[in-house]
Structures are given as C-alpha cells and as structure tokens.
Design the sequence.
C-alpha cells in the first residue's frame, strides 16, 4: 500500500515538474527573442533570471520611447493644430527632465515582472499555462477579479502617497513636479521615484498568490498598464466613460486631489474622489 502511494506521489511530482518546465520554456523563448539582437557570447552565459530582467528592462525601454515618441510626433507636430494648442505643448527641457527621471526608475520597476516570473516558474503562484485548463468563463472571471484588485491597490496606494505627507515629500513629489499642461507629456507617465514605480507594479505580483491567472495574460496586462500610464499624461480631452482618461488625470496633477484611479472612474466614484473634467474645482462630481 505504501509503495502504491509512493509511486503515485512520484508521478504527481514528475507531472508538476514537467508543467513548471513548460512555464520556464515559455519565459526562455521570450528571452531568446530579445537576446537574438545581441551577440550570443554576451547573452547566452547570463543566468536565466538575469536574462528575464534584461528582457523586461529592454522591452520597457523600447515601449517607452517608441510609444511616447510616436504620440508626441502625432499630437505635437503632425496634428498640433487639431488636438492641442501651441501653448499646451511642453518644452523640450521639460520632456528631457521627464525622461531623466524615468530612466532612474526603469531598472527597478523591471525587477517586479522578473520576480513575478521567478515565482511562477517555481510554482509558488496560482498562474496557469493554458486557458483550456480552466475554461473561457473561469478565465474571464479570473481576469476581471485580478483587474479590480489591481485598481483597488493602485487607488489606495496613490491616495496614500498624497494623504501621508512624508510619502508625498520623499516619493510622490518626484512625479508631481510635472503639474501643468505645459509640463506634462506621455514621457511623464514613467517619471516617478523608483519606490513609487515598484509600488505601482507590485499588485501584478502579489495578487498572483491569491487569484489564478493565465501566464501570458498577466504579462499582457502589465504591458498594457504601462502604455495606459503613458497616454493618461498626454493632456488630451478624450472623455471615454467610464475610463479614467488623460483629461481626468490632468485634473489630478493640477488639483493634487481627486481622480486617483488607474483604468476606470470606479474607485474614485466609490470612495468620493471623482471629479469630472467639466466640473469646477469647488463642485467635484463625486459620490
């Protein structure tokens, strides 16, 4: 009897090891894709976790400069007389300062997805490899719960960075030095203190221990969050209800209160800090 159970445990362990190996191979394939742009003698000797960090860092840099540069070219130059007035376009000096601050945070924030992937590969989280393992309905449910929890986390950490004065003084002020339309641009989206940048990305790791998530979807959501952050600092008047678009976030930078949320107005509406772009400062439309 004991031998029978022992054999079963061994089979389960082997299956689990094989399953986790698939996750490692998935991550390794992404690393190899990025590493193909570098000499093999330089990339191949790097440990797997170092390759993962380097891939996350490089992809973050490329995404940051590509998305923000294209955005600025389109709205500041090509369509400068359509969406924004000339006076609302930030100076080159301001943009360079935003990039300088962002470059200090980028290596640190790239550690968060690296740590996430390490925990996933070790089987410590509730991540799963294929949607077929749970079915489409459960997959969608997991994703929605995960997004709501991230929204909750970002709202309250952002609000705490304002309400707790030492946190604002030592960390959040770095981002809020850009507080006018002429000092904001998509490049300011990543211009934060490294501690704040890590704090914003941290829920994408923490909630993997509590909410099952599809591995690729988790990586995609983290990437989308970065791109969304860039666009919300562009000062455009988009008004895409119920999303917390750039016009909402511009008001947050100008007023230093209201509109603490991330993707949607939900958390600000629930907790009484919602102020619509067409509201006056003294009459915020909140719950």
Sequence:
């Amino acid at each position: 009897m004991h031998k029978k159970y022992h054999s079963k445990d061994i089979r389960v362990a082997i299956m689990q090891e094989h399953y986790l190996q698939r996750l490692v191979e998935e991550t390794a394939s992404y690393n190899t894709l990025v590493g193909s742009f570098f000499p093999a003698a330089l990339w191949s000797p790097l440990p797997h976790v170092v390759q993962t960090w380097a891939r996350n860092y490089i992809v973050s840099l490329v995404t940051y400069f590509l998305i923000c540069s294209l955005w600025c070219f389109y709205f500041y130059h090509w369509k400068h007389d359509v969406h924004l007035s000339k006076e609302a376009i930030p100076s080159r000096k301001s943009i360079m300062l935003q990039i300088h601050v962002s470059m200090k945070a980028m290596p640190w924030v790239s550690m968060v997805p690296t740590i996430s992937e390490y925990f996933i590969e070790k089987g410590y989280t509730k991540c799963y490899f294929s949607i077929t393992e749970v079915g489409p309905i459960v997959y969608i449910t997991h994703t929605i719960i995960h997004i709501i929890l991230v929204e909750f986390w970002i709202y309250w950490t952002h609000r705490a960075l304002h309400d707790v004065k030492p946190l604002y003084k030592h960390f959040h002020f770095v981002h809020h030095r850009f507080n006018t339309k002429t000092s904001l641009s998509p490049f300011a989206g990543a211009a934060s203190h490294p501690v704040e940048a890590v704090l914003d990305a941290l829920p994408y790791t923490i909630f993997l221990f509590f909410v099952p998530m599809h591995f690729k979807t988790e990586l995609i959501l983290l990437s989308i969050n970065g791109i969304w952050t860039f666009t919300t600092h562009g000062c455009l008047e988009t008004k895409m209800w119920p999303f917390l678009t750039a016009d909402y976030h511009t008001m947050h930078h100008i007023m230093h209160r209201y509109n603490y949320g991330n993707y949607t107005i939900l958390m600000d509406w629930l907790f009484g800090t919602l102020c619509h772009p067409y509201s006056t400062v003294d009459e915020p439309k909140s719950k």
